[in-house]
Amino acid sequence: MGAKLSVNLNKVALLRNARTIGIPSVVRAAEVCIEAGAHGITVHPRPDERHIRRQDVFDLAEALKAAPEVEFNIEGNPFPEFMELVLKVKPTQCTLVPDSPEAFTSDHGWDLKAEGERLKPIINQLKQEGIRTSLFMETDPEQIGLARTVGADRVELYTEPYAASFARGVRVEETLEAFRHAAEKAQSVWLGVNAGHDLNLQNLGLFCSIPNIMEVSIGHALISDALEMGLANTVRAYLKVLDEAEMEETGASRALAS
């Protein structure tokens, strides 16, 4: 199977928080995404609860019990309060992100030379609870190699540089090649490869020409597209792009084999 789609619901929660009447419902949005074929649901709760709230995480975990095939991915910096939440909920995957509490959005990957020793016991604790652990990383092959040594199961490649290059139409192939090398490095040390940040309907297909991407986490662009297309139709549109990318990858592999 090609890359799975995990829908980030932060922006649904952000809109909900603009009023006090509980709509749109984060849980209902998750249900719509799942009914449309999404493979996973992602949330990134922040300490100030500007979008996803602590209670949302518990509500989603309860709702997802009805769809055990759907993965629940919780992202965040492993501060004590975050870790307490994750260990209570026990999602399928925890993606550790090095953002500060006041960060507008995630904007860089881990520096494991500086933070690796801090992360080792945290990752070990997550794995003891059966939670797959992914680290938010940039494309430096040396740093990605260190992700294996601290115990991670996967890396999530921070794709904003690729998305920005694609949007400008500048150095797209060169930038994509850096991500290809990063993915190959991760796979060479038996790390799974996820990706996320500013991926959209226009740039996703080309990015997934990189072989064996396991999961893409998409929120802002997908929820924005849903304003025009509807949430279910938007999820199906992203799945179509992923299916087409998988078919192209399979065709290229067969051509090489022959």
Question: Can you tell me about this structure?
Answer:
There is one protein chain. This protein is of the alpha/beta class. The chain has one domain (4-252): Alpha-Beta Barrel (TIM Barrel), CATH 3.20.20.70. The protein has helices at 10-16, 26-35, 54-63, 80-89, 112-128, 141-149, 160-168, 172-188, 204-207, 220-229, 231-257, and strands at residues 4-8, 40-43, 71-76, 93-96, 132-137, 154-158, 192-196, 215-218. Strands 1-2-3-4-5-6-7-8 form an eight-stranded parallel β-barrel, surrounded by seven helices. Helix 3 (54-63) links the parallel strand 2 (40-43) and strand 3 (71-76). Helix 2 packs parallel to helix 3 (54-63), helix 6 packs parallel to helix 8 (172-188) and helix 10 packs across helix 11.
Give the SSE layout.
Layout: E1 4-8, H1 10-16, H2 26-35, E2 40-43, H3 54-63, E3 71-76, H4 80-89, E4 93-96, H5 112-128, E5 132-137, H6 141-149, E6 154-158, H7 160-168, H8 172-188, E7 192-196, H9 204-207, E8 215-218, H10 220-229, H11 231-257
Parallel strand pairs: 1-2, 1-8, 2-3, 3-4, 4-5, 5-6, 6-7, 7-8
